[in-house]
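Entry type: protein chain
Record version: 2
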Amino acid sequence: MSKPSARSRLADAAFALFDERGYEQTTVDDIAERAGVGRTTFFRHYRSKEEVIFPDHDRLLDLIRDRLNTSNSGTALIAVSDAVRLVLLHYLDEGELARRRYGLTSKVSALRDREIASVARYQRLFREFIADWMGDPTESASLRAELMAANVVAAHNHVLRRWLRGESADPVTEMDEAMREVLALFPAPVPGAGPGTGTTVIAFRTGQDLDALLPELRRLVEGGRP
């Protein structure tokens, strides 16, 4: 059996010490000593003890960007779903390490802040891609891109956390279903359709006479004033 790499030994040592002593009480020197390597070797693999916990975000962002960049206007939403699946599969491949990270970030506020910042980077990448795909510089389109990106990230995090808590036996299928739900909320833009085009449909129940109600509905749809 081959000997684990120094990087792997450092990660195992770090998480073991975090469990034993607490994150704040564990130093880089402690981790290096437990892993049987020198301080220089630690910094060859990680810039800080925090990076032992979050080592792959830059690589994942690059993977997402690469997948999105291979799409065209007709496959953009497929690319978004594929990119989200790439991130989920990364955590599934980590297995128990991902669950240990989840437990640690749940307890250490500084790590939660780092995780929130990382999630914001994912959301910004999706928002920029979606806004570019929509090709509409208006403020309403910008808001729509922001909302869509937020929903994409929320769907991923919901499924991932279910798996981390042991509540999902098939997270990949759940992720695909969640993304279908999200994308159904945001149909592809219709070329040439701008503000004020199309038909507005309003559905509700009322006891008011229909003949009396129709003029008011028309006024609301057309944005008129009484």
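Comment: The chain is about 70% helix and 0% strand.
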